[in-house]
Amino acid sequence: MDLITHVQQKMVEILPEILNSYEGEIGDVDLSAMEQQVRQMSHAVGNEVLKRWLEMQDGKYPADEQVCPHCTAQARYVRRRSGLAITLLGRVYYRRSYYCCAVCGQGHYPLDHRLKIKPGEMSDGVVKCAALVGIESGFETSRDRLARLSLLELSPNSIRKASQRMGASVMQQEAALLAHSQSDEAQHAHRREPEKPRRLYGSIDGFMVLLDDGWHEMKAGAWWTTHTTRQGELKADNIHYYVDYLPATEFADLVWATGFEHHADQAYELVFVADGATWIWRIVEQHYPQAIQIVDWYHASAYLSAIAEAAFKDKQAAQRWLDQQTDALWHGRLRQVFRACRSLAERAPDAVHTALIYFAHNRHRMRYDKFRHKGLQIGSGTMESGCKQLGLGRLKIAGAQWSTDGARLVAKARAAYLSGQWDEINTSAEALPLIA
Ligand SMILES: [Zn+2]
Fold first, then answer.
1. How remote is the CA of residue 86 from the centroid of ligand 1, in Å?
2. How far is CA 102 from CA 68, 75, 108, 110, in A?
3. What DSSP state is assigned to residue 273?
4. Which among 114, 126, 307, 347 could bridge 122 via Cys, Cβ 3.0 to 4.6 Å?
5. Helices and strands per DSSP (H, E), number in the chain
6. For 333-376, what is each residue's pLDDT tens digit?
């Protein structure tokens, strides 16, 4: 049994005695007032436990000397000094030994060093908690939500910092992944691994964000697998989103790096479902020439709706035409679809022209009969809902204005959360070591 379980048992054991001694003083407080008070108390007791635990870690009798982490000379004990750790149980003030080095003149706290505490900074737990609220709503609103949910009193600025820190940690992980994915050795090792994905999906898309200097396009991507539900529907699972604010040529590296993590290059079957944007298919062809390419069914069929709407005054006639052509597209009768579109060129020149250009570019990506026979997903709903959640949910909040870096970091944090990676992110990676 661990220490805290022991402590908890002991506390529970002595609790009746303490409470009984107040028997005459039990007032007529209602449950909701009481639960708030007890909650505050647990918070305060937890704070006290952390403080005592920290001070016990430091030891009763500090050694006269310790190795200086700055220069490795011997540093001398000076005295205990008070420190502050911002934890899930509030601000913990504790005392710990302070050493000063005569050689380099710098001081240090061995306890902070050992426990990776950066005095006055938020713990990893606080960063994750604050960021979780901060990536969902404005930082002002977040302050109130956080206080209500967790009793943590943080300024909007601290919540902003926490959210950006999560994003920065994701960025750090991605940088490591980028380097790894480009090493010959790692690529070699990949090929030898026996486990290869059977069928992996990928998608890429862009969405608009309002930054300080106007609207900009962010780029996002996703990797996922699918399973078939009992109703026979294909559902996405293990979805991994990534996002960045980069030109397409640089975003391509992130596509490769995240794909490498999912063994996309080794998949027996790799399927890209996306809309028709040229930069997207260029990236796919550059890194995954073997992939099956599919333009999203809803994007493609929307071109038919646009023609129907522009060409027919009569709503029923429009619907009839649309039903016929959608059915033909669904069954892979592309020639019939093209012919039908062309026959309306005089009545709806713009819509037909746009559609025919799109179809001509994406012809091989519209073999929906073939794709369906293989049991492939033909809609990029997974990616679109990702973009919506990455963009609309937070970055497009009314009145929210972002700097490029701010938007980029919060989007990355959101992507990690949506991908279920929140707990794996190490927010303290950059904090240490102290050794220069
Ligand atoms: Zn030193």
1. 28
2. 10, 7, 12, 16
3. E
4. 126
5. 16, 9
6. 999 999 999 999 999 999 999 999 999 999 999 999 999 999 99
How far, in Å, from the CA of 87 to the mean position of ligand 1? 30
Nearest one of 418, 419, 417, 435 to 129, comparing CA atoms: 417
Cα separation, 192 vs 245, in Å, equals: 34
Ligand 1 midpoint to CA 272 (Å): 56
Structure tokens at 264: 């996309």
Q: From ligand 1's centre to the CA of 52, what distance in Å?
A: 29
Q: Please give the distance, rounded to the nearest whole angstrom, from the Cα atom of residue 323 to the centre of ligand 1.
A: 79
Token pair for residue 369? 């009969």
Q: How far is the CA of 99 from the centre of ligand 1 (A)?
A: 10
The SS3 of residue 222 is strand
Instruction: Enumerate the H helices of 94-247 as residue ranges.
Output: 110-115, 124-134, 139-150, 156-181, 184-192
Binning the chain into helix, strand and coil, the percentages to the nearest 5 are: 55, 20, 25
C-alpha 427 – ligand 1 centre gap (Å): 27
**Contact call for residues 371 and 234 (beta carbons, < 8 A):** no
Secondary structure (H, E, C), 289-312: CCCEEEECHHHHHHHHHHHHHHHC
- SS3 label, residue 58: helix
Whose tokens are 């204005």? That residue is 401
Please tell me the distance between residue 101's alpha carbon and the centre of ligand 1 in angstroms: 5
Ligand 1 midpoint to CA 25 (Å): 58
Summarised one tens digit per residue, pLDDT across range 375-411 is: 999 988 888 888 777 775 556 555 566 788 888 898 9
Structural Rg of the chain based on CA atoms: 29
Tell how far the Cα of 102 is from the centroid of ligand 1, in angstroms: 7
